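Long-time lurker, finally posting.

We've been working with DUF736 domain-containing protein (Mesorhizobium helmanticense) and I want a structural starting point before designing mutants. I don't trust myself to interpret raw outputs, so I'm hoping someone here can both generate the C-alpha cells and explain anything notable. Sequence follows.
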Amino acid sequence: MTTTNFIQFDTDDLDAAKGNGLISTIDRDLDIHVVPFDSSNEKAPTHRVYAKSPRGYDIEVGGIWKKTSEAKKPYYTLSIKRLGFNANLGRYPGQDDPTLQAIIEWDPRD
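Top reply, 14 upvotes:
Generated this for you. Predicted structure of DUF736 domain-containing protein:
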C-alpha cells in the first residue's frame, strides 16, 4: 500500500475526527496533524492542518473543508496555501477502511 499522501483519522466520523498523516512532494515531506475546528461560519474549514517547523513547533499550514458534490454527496478538500497544494480526500483503490483517507492532489503547485 502507498505510504505517502494520506491521513489516518481516529474515527470514521471525519467531521469530529483527529488525524495524522504525510504529504510528500518532489522537494519536501510534511508530517501533518489535523484537528477538528468548530465554527458557525459555513465557509470555515472543518479541520485545521498543522505541521512541524524546522525547530519542532506546531504551525498551522492549512485546512480541510467539507463540500457537497453536484450529486449531493459530501466530500472533503485539503489546502495548504503556501505550497499551492490542493487535494481531495478519498480512498485508495481496493481499500475499505473509512478512517484512512488518501490525499489526492488536483491542482498544480506554483
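Before you design anything, note these points.
The beta strands are 6-9, 19-24, 29-36, 47-52, 58-68, 74-80, 85-90, 100-107.
The chain has a mean pLDDT of 91.
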